Amino acid sequence: MGIRILYIAEIVGKAGIWCVKNALPILKKSELPDVVVANADGATGSFGLGRQHAGYLRKLGIDLLVGGDSIYYKKDLVEGIDSLTNVVRPANYPPESPGRGWRYANARGSKLAVISMLGRVGFSRVHGDNPFLALSHLAERLRAETPYILVDFHSGATAEKQAFFHYADGLVSACVGSHSRVQTSDEAIFPKGLGCITDAGRTGSRDSVGGMDSALKIREYLTGVPDWSRDSWERPTLQGVVIDLDASGKTTAIKRIQHECPEGPAESASGAVDGGNGDAGTGKDS
């Protein structure tokens, strides 16, 4: 019979959460997904995921949240991540790392396994084990439980993502690239049934620099002084992909989505919009 997955691209800041609140009910009616997965690596303060946001996004209708290199940037999440069954950290982190690198979500009576993998290119603060080797071992284990396996591959290099996709063809159902926060137009289905896209994009401000205020990022490049203090609210948009899997776990269709949302409450956002997280605007505070 197969299942349909709605994958929401990286949620960035309050604008991203506003987009989920506004657009997800509409997309659930129009796309009829069996399960909703989102990358939440930038949900709190545009870098990281706070515990309250993790709970709030679940209430909004997201079944599983995956993270990448910023998953441990918020201390309140780290302290309780083992008890959060809707949060997935990179599977190729050290075994001693808190949390789980894969989780199951219910999809029309079947199980969808969702894996987070961290690439080795583009990250100076964190380093994971070889994601290629980690995937081969983990995929074999998960295929004994379900034919439906989705991988979020978080990498800073297009070449690494594409090499990973070719390697994963025949091992898992679909791979979605994340981290660049820019949606690519290369969605494809590989010969052995892998659905993939180099990057699903971002959910938040579209007229921005990766969801961040463009003036601040320009000043950063001019001065060399980093600034993550303000995300942008210009043209809020939910981006992502819809993936159809057949009963054997192979992708039969993959399409990009871009749903523009009405302007949000911007800097005056209340707790009802941002989840009431006290560190929602603190940026990179690892």
Please identify which CATH superfamily we are dealing with. Answer: Metallo-dependent phosphatases
Rg over CA atoms: 17 Å
- Oligomeric form: single chain
CATH classification class: Alpha Beta
Q: Note the beta-strand portion.
A: 25-35%
Number of domains: 1
Helix content: 25-40%
CATH architecture tag: 4-Layer Sandwich
Characterization of the model:
The protein has one domain (3-264): Metallo-dependent phosphatases (Purple Acid Phosphatase, chain A, domain 2), CATH 3.60.21.10. It contains seven helices and 14 strands. The protein has helices spanning 13-31, 51-59, 75-80, 131-143, 158-168, 214-223, 271-274, and strands spanning 3-8, 10-11, 35-39, 64-66, 87-88, 102-107, 110-118, 148-154, 174-178, 188-189, 195-197, 202-205, 236-245, 251-260. The strands form two sheets. Strands 1, 2, 3, 4, 5, 12, 13 and 14 form an eight-stranded mixed β-sheet that branches. Strands 6-7-8-9-11-10 form a six-stranded mixed β-sheet, covered by helices on one side.
How is the secondary structure organized here?
Blueprint: E1 3-8, E2 10-11, H1 13-31, E3 35-39, H2 51-59, E4 64-66, H3 75-80, E5 87-88, E6 102-107, E7 110-118, H4 131-143, E8 148-154, H5 158-168, E9 174-178, E10 188-189, E11 195-197, E12 202-205, H6 214-223, E13 236-245, E14 251-260, H7 271-274
Keywords:
14 strands, Purple Acid Phosphatase, chain A, domain 2, six-stranded mixed β-sheet, 286 residues, alpha/beta, eight-stranded mixed β-sheet, globular
Short account of what is shown:
Helix content is 25%, strand content 26%.
